[in-house]
Amino acid sequence: MFKHFQSVYAKKEVTYGTDPVPVKTLNAILTGPVDIESVFKKMDRLNVKQYLGNRASVSIGEQVKVSFETEVRGSGDSTPNTPPEIGVLFVGCNMAEDIDKSSGALSITFVAATKKVTRGAGSFVTDGFEVGDIVTCDAVLNPGPFTVTVVAALEMTFSETVADEGPVTKTLTANKVVYTPSDTLDGNSITLYVQEHDLLYKVTGCRGTWSLDTKSAEYAKIKWEFQGLYVGPIDSAIETGIVYNATIPPAVKAATFSLGSFDTEAIIDTFKLTYGNELARRPSVNAATGTLSYFIKERKTLIQIDPEAVALATWDPITLLTAGTTAPLAFTIGSTAGNRMRINCPQVSIDSAKFGDREGLLTWDGSLLVEPTSAGQDDTKVTFN
Q1: pTM over 0.85, yes/no
Q2: C-alpha–C-alpha distance, residues 293 and 291, integer Å
């Protein structure tokens, strides 16, 4: 058998540990080389004996570990509210998937002179609209799509031209797919089918973590690490005719990065985010494998950046570090609707900062601590639009 003959299918579970049966036409994930490992607990039998030499131990299957990398790319849907191929993997890291944000039916007015839409009550911000969103509407003269450049409670500004219309009672929709943390014990899980040529693992009850690695003028990649309930491989011929999404990953260029007010001055080469889920085993004598589930007991998200050093009046990481100052962070990869990924962290503080060197230029090697707000479950938001 060939080592490089591999495939991965993934599908969200309805019930933890119950196989939802992923298929090649709907659930295939285009990955790099896959590592899969069955983990055993070795039990030595230390009974008395009347001779020298080894004695066979008993090995009990505990779990299966699966890891691989994927490219960062969207669905290619120009609308764009179709989850990306890798979306199910975020779900497997116990993140909630939310498709589209809507204003609901309300009285709005489009103003051609300012490229704005206004409302008299409520809030576009509270409804979940953000800068960079692709917005559509059921209005006759202004169906969209429009790209949001400024958003406030009672108005949004678009980059495209709008027609004078209103007031009319219509609905605005931000077309996007959003992944946010979930802190529930019995949260989302997935089943992974991992094919090693003609050997197949059907790994249920998978939960995991991810880390994003980007470098300027290269494709961004995400490393995924999952743990699932123990199972051994079975004989099964590798399938052909697997259907993958054909979208080409965007290179990390013309990206947007900001850390508080430190934005256009920030010249960075690499951006790395480690989501940092910590998994633990829930043992149970009643479970078929002795393991009830694998759950996420903690999350410690970190970001590494390497900006060129600038005047301290512009950005002073040492003072920010010693003061414990927090600031929002935003980073967008890609510029085409349907093939963009945006990272938003509402509270980031500097965890460490030291000088570095990039081609003879003075840089800061900075580690950032990502924190949730007092509301919780909001420390890292991943948006595809």
Answers
A1: yes
A2: 6
